[in-house]
Amino acid sequence: MYNKVLLSVCSSVLCVAHTLLIGSHQPIVALVGDGVLLPCHLEPPLDVTTLSVEWRRGPALVHVYRSRGDDPVSQDQNFKGRTSLFQDEMTRGNISLKLTDVTEQDAGNYTCSVPKLQRSYVTLILSDVGLLLSDVIALHEPVNVTIGDDAILPCHLEPEFDLKTQTVEWRRDQTIVHVYRNRDDDPVPQDESFRGRTSLFPDEMTRGNISLKLTNVTEQDAGEYMCFVPNLKGQVKKGYFNLIVGEYS
């Protein structure tokens, strides 16, 4: 009997050691006052009903599950009565967290963890309803430009929304053309071939204009461009169009 129990425990530890915690690669966007689901699951699926599960936002304990039940004693006061797991789904490794009545203070980086497993991270972003209802609109027609000239690549939000506090990205295929975040341009991730040649129109961003100015156009600049705002409806909403580069005639 003793040997059987020991073998069972070792097998369980082995299973956990070969399981990964999977969170969300994209930020989760929520409105103040709404409920939100922070996804996290084990892959391959593993029954975690007998294990401990913790959710944290920074050092704050958001939710604790242990001994086959929720443990509210150690939970941060700000989250009392607003969090729950899906206990019927835990047999299949689902440890996603439901957070209700979201407040501005709930924004931040969350971690879900199970003993003996690496933690997984989920970012919660609070947004304005106006942003969630907006669409990214790019030009449907190709933009034609001569080598050496400047080009305006048009893109805007409709209905209009102030984007000064949001993140905006421009890409050509997989190449990062321009990044705006934290109220300023961020040249660090920008592709070297576009350095010093791109800019937005900051005064126009309050009206949802995220058009890109590209100077001294080269033949290599031709291609499909994409403008997007990551925080729209929790999904990346994009606008596409082509830049056609020709020689001076």
Count of β-strands: 22
Q: What's the Cα radius of gyration?
A: 24 Å
The percent range for helix content is: under 10%
In one word, what is the shape?
Answer: elongated
Q: Give the neighbour order of strands across the main sheet.
A: 2-11-10-5-6-7
InterPro entries: Ig-like_dom, Ig-like_dom_sf, Ig-like_fold, Ig_sub, Ig_sub2, Ig_V-set, IgSF_BTN/MOG
Keywords: Disulfide bond, Glycoprotein, Immunoglobulin domain, Membrane, Signal
Domain Ig-like: 33-114, 115-231
Signal peptide: 1-19
Structural notes for this entry:
- Helices cover 8% and strands 39% of the residues.
- β6 and β7 form a beta hairpin.
- The chain starts with a helix and ends with a strand.
- The protein is built from 2 helices and 22 strands.
- The longest helix is centred in the N-terminal third of the chain and has 16 residues.
- The radius of gyration is 24 Å and the shape is elongated.
- The chain has a 6-stranded mixed sheet with strand order 2-11-10-5-6-7.
- The protein folds into 2 domains: 126 residues, Immunoglobulins (Immunoglobulin-like, Sandwich), CATH 2.60.40.10; 117 residues, Immunoglobulins (Immunoglobulin-like, Sandwich).
- By secondary structure, the chain is mostly beta strands.
Protein topology:
Layout: H1 2-17, E1 20-22, E2 28-31, E3 36-38, E4 41-43, E5 53-57, E6 60-66, E7 69-70, E8 83-85, E9 97-99, E10 108-113, E11 120-127, H2 129-132, E12 135-138, E13 143-146, E14 151-153, E15 155-158, E16 168-172, E17 175-181, E18 184-185, E19 198-199, E20 212-214, E21 223-229, E22 237-246
Parallel strand pairs: 2-11, 13-22
Antiparallel strand pairs: 1-4, 3-9, 5-6, 5-10, 6-7, 8-9, 10-11, 12-15, 14-20, 16-17, 16-21, 17-18, 19-20, 21-22
